[in-house]
Each structure stands twice: as C-alpha cells, then as structure tokens.
Amino acid sequence: MKSTDKNFIERLQQQEEDALEFIVDNYLPLIKGIAYKILSPLKNEGIIEECINDIFLSIWNNSKKFHGDSTDFRKWICAIAKFKSIDSYRKATKKVEFTSSYTDVNLEKSAEDELIMMEDRTELLQLIDLLEPVDRDIFILKFFLGFKNEDISIKLGLTKASIDNRIYRGKKKLNQKATNLKLGGSVV
Which of 47, 122, 134, 155 has the fewest CB atoms below 10 angstroms from its CB? Predict the structure, then answer.
C-alpha cells in the first residue's frame, strides 16, 4: 500500500516510511520556507538544512500525538517547523565565535555584567510569556529574531499599524508587570 492524500496521516502514525516520503514530497517547500525565513539572518546553509532534517524527524517521532485531518496536519507541521527553527536560531546565536579584535574592544565587560545581562534576558522572557499569544509572537519576532514591523505584519496577517500598536501596548504591559513584580528596570 502506498501513501495518498487520504491515508498518509494514518500510515505515518503506523511508522510507514512511504508516509514520511509523501510528507517530504508534499510539504518540503512549506517547511523550507519557514526555516529559511527564521534562520536566513544566520547566513549558514548547514544550520538551515540541519533544522529541516530535525523538523522531519520531530514529525516522525511525534506523529502518534497528532489528531486531526490534513488541514490540521498542515497547521501542526507549521508549528513544529516554526518552533524548531526558533530553537535552532537560539542555539546558533549562543555559539557565536568571538574574534580576538572583538574581545579586545569589549574587555571592560566583566563576568558580573554578563551574568546580569543573562538574568535580565531571562526575566524579559518570563514577562513575555505573560502576554497574549499573538503579542508574544510579535515580541519574539521583533526583539529576539530582529524582524521588521512590516515583515511581522506580513507573516502574521495583521496590518503594520496593528503591529505598531501591539508593540506599544505590549511594552506598557511589560513595564507595569515588571514594576508589579518588582523586577526593576524598564522594558523599552
């Protein structure tokens, strides 16, 4: 039996390899597009290809957790691709190599300064987790992945004005929450 539009999900859950081949043939452009959009700022094809492989491996390993039809399946693999790509981006940016000229210029940063910056970043991520899902996505795309407001509006299907308003309101909410939680500093 061969995988088709009607049976590929069931065959994937039964760990039939032809189902994975069917998924690769039909969904590779979609997954590749998501991975490239998130990882292209790294300018490293190897990381992108590795991420795409990780996405398909995750689809294979977690197929039994999926319940739904082919429309839901498309959304499910898009979510996997998005989060795997963001994870790959985070891992890659943590492994940035420092050249000797960079370290000479930044000798004034102490270990304490680095620790404070890491703690601030952790606190900011905890605060962002308190936002609505759409606002959380906007903040991650804008401030962690470096997307422009126009690109975010296209990606999320919202107007640029809506993105600008959500960023403004989100910053206000984060400042209020930081003050209420007595985390100190401001989120701007």
Answer: 122
